[in-house]
Amino acid sequence: MLKNHSIQIRDPFIFPNQLDGKYYLYGSTDKNIWRKGTGFDVYIGTDLENWEGPFPVFRANDSFYSEENFWAPEVHEYRGKYYMFATFLRKDNQRRGTAILCSERLIGPFEPHSIGPITPKEWDSLDGTLYVDKEGQPWMIFCHEWVEVADGEICAVKLSDNLKEAVADPIILFRASEASWPTAFSHPKRTTKTNYVTDGPFIYQAENGDLMMLWASFVNNVYAQGISRSLTGKITGPWLHDEIPIYKNDGGHGMIFQTFNGNLMLTLHSPNKSPNERPKFIKIIESKGRITVLDNELNNQEK
């Protein structure tokens, strides 16, 4: 068994499987995610603290369209199968993009489903997530990277019913600078002096029907997690941004899930520097569309 403090992982994503009463923890699991990609693993546990694994769920063969930057896998159940949304650096043009893999089982193996990344080929994009609206239309929500556009964007694109391709052009939901809490930074390798990051969008439907989005950026060069909400209840917005991040202790790329005991949890990775990143599980409550952090970095989640 492994404890959370022993698991190096970025971009943690939990799939609570009601069928076997176990949590499946996915994430960026390569020891050096900035270099050659190996694949993705899963950890399996019952209490969010003790884990079996890692078990390999995806390994790329020589014909795969990427061999570098295997990032941020999310696994969603859709029409009886499991779909992994994950980011890869393309071989053909060295641009990052999110593709979709598929498996009959949570433990894989996951195989390529979309024909390469679904995000625009000439864009630097990452961190795609699935959202299915009230009409049953699937969308991918993703980030158009700051490394290309300086002011990072969060975008949405309609997907085909079989999740194999985009069926429309992406639309910009908002830019990072539109929220009050992220701060700008300069980078020695970029000509732009004012840059803002968008990372890890995740869609959450509140009990009162509010459509909310978690996403990450930086506050004075410290990784942080904030929330935005759609004023119309539609993915197309417009989006209103909470003024204060819910987590600003060098952690982000979060998602919300419900435990088998009915508690709401926020998971994210912290700190943000390799190789020290670890999964954090933080108990929260949600009331009238507002999220409150109750405990920080819980060790015994189900008490």
TrEMBL record:
Instruction: Kindly tell me the pathway this chain contributes to.
Output: Glycan metabolism; L-arabinan degradation
UniProt keywords (A-Z) are: Glycosidase, Hydrolase
Q: Which domain of life is it from?
A: Bacteria
Is Hydrolase given among the entry's keywords? yes
* Cited SUPFAM superfamilies: Arabinanase/levansucrase/invertase (SSF75005)
Tell whether Hydrolase is among the UniProt keywords: yes
Q: Which Gene3D superfamilies match?
A: Glycosyl hydrolase domain, family 43 (2.115.10.20)
Question: InterPro entries annotated for this entry?
Answer: GH43_arabinanases (IPR050727), Glyco_hydro_43 (IPR006710), Glyco_hydro_beta-prop_sf (IPR023296)
Q: Which family does it belong to?
A: Belongs to the glycosyl hydrolase 43 family.
Identify this protein by name.
Beta-xylosidase
Lineage start:
Bacteria, Bacillati, Bacillota, Bacilli, Bacillales
